[in-house]
Amino acid sequence: MNRVERFALYVALTALTALAIDGVLPAMPMIEADLEDASPFTGAQIITVFVFGMAGGELLTGPLSDAVGRRSVVIAGLVVFAIGTIIAATADSFAAVIMGRFLQGVGVAGPKIGTRAMIRDRYAGNDMAQVMSVIFTLLILVPMIAPAIGAVIAAASGWRGVFWAYLVLALVLGVWLAVRHPETLHPEKKIPLHVRRLVRNTCTVLGRADVTPVIIATGFIFGAQLTYFAVAADLFGTLYLQSARMPALFALLATGTGAALLLNVRFVRHTGMGPPILAGLALLGVSGATLMAAAAFTEGHPSLAVLLGLAWIGFFALGLLFGNLNALAMRPLGDLAGLSASIIAATSSLVAFVFATGVGALTTSPVWAVAVAFALSATLSAVLISVAIPARSWGRVLRLRPPSR
């Protein structure tokens, strides 16, 4: 496998998570209309339950990949993802779709975490940083094109066709990995899975006052984005009657996050992580508060231009916060980097699920849901970060650069 093919495989495996979330968005109204029944589930849970399943999968994937190898865990995750996809694609009730989405979330943790571990095994230092930069730059395109792909498939073959496309993708990735990519974890570096030690190390990570609040803050930030995903179909399709333009509107807002990710690479080289974090929290809070004011003066229905402008600022803020908060949480945990990555991913996903579910239950309009999620996540995250990093230490954080690995 040459460098180009290896990069392509890593990008495809890493992109599966975003494709599984963004690609199904245009099909959500079809699913709700086709499987309308008396189940207690809502359309938003097609998105949130996926993240809930992913949280459980992420917690197991890191330690398992250290014990049995990266490739086995990635393939096993793709198998679970495929099972969930088949359940959803053949569902005759809304509850069955939700169950399939949960299993998809559990399974997607395999390629998500396992691919990062493979990259860490194969590359080090500046080479690893370069590889990750290339991969994440390419991944900026996924949220822009995934809804359009999902819309085309749904228009041609119905909402079930979207899930069958997921199945084909999972099979292709599994065969590609199994046939072409070797195991990257050397046998002598495998770490046996000891439950007692795993619990002890997990408690060590979560017991750190300078880490856990940052992890929870990361979950709130992810929860703000998850809230948008959960209500996006109602927001654009039902409230603004823009179903046909929905993929284009998704792509437009995704450019905010993409622009921030690209600019952040330049910011952190010169300023460290602190200023982008502060700027991101401020912009997210302002965009949410302003959108709340706009919603209050328009009975929850501001003009589409106002919504898109303020939401774009919010998504730009999210782009500044995602990577930097993860790096801030990981920085003190070098000795437990593998386990810590799983704990951070799983805990933040769980917090995001609870946050998005709570905001959805407390708001009656999709505009209010997005506005409250942006403003509340920024406020709570700012409080948590101030708890984790006392004022006397913030000057040092302002100068921190993200870790090279």
What is the name of the CATH superfamily of the largest domain? MFS general substrate transporter like domains
**CATH fold assignment of the largest domain:** Growth Hormone, Chain: A
User: What best-fitting shape do the alpha-carbon axes yield?
Assistant: globular
Order of helices and strands: HHHHHHHHHHHHHHH
The count of β-strands is: 0
Overview of this protein structure:
The radius of gyration is 20 Å and the shape is globular. The protein contains 15 helices and no strands. Helix 3 (45-68) runs antiparallel to helix 4 (70-89). It has helices at residues 3-22, 28-34, 45-68, 70-89, 94-122, 125-139, 142-180, 195-206, 212-239, 246-271, 274-297, 304-330, 337-362, 366-388, 391-398. The protein is mostly helical. The model has no long low-confidence stretch (mean pLDDT 84). The two termini are 24 Å apart. The chain folds into two domains: 1-180, Up-down Bundle (Growth Hormone, Chain: A); 194-405, Growth Hormone, Chain: A (Up-down Bundle), CATH 1.20.1250.20.
Structure at a glance:
This protein is mainly α. The chain has 15 helices and no strands.
Which secondary structure elements does this structure contain, and how are they paired or packed?
Elements: H1 3-22, H2 28-34, H3 45-68, H4 70-89, H5 94-122, H6 125-139, H7 142-180, H8 195-206, H9 212-239, H10 246-271, H11 274-297, H12 304-330, H13 337-362, H14 366-388, H15 391-398
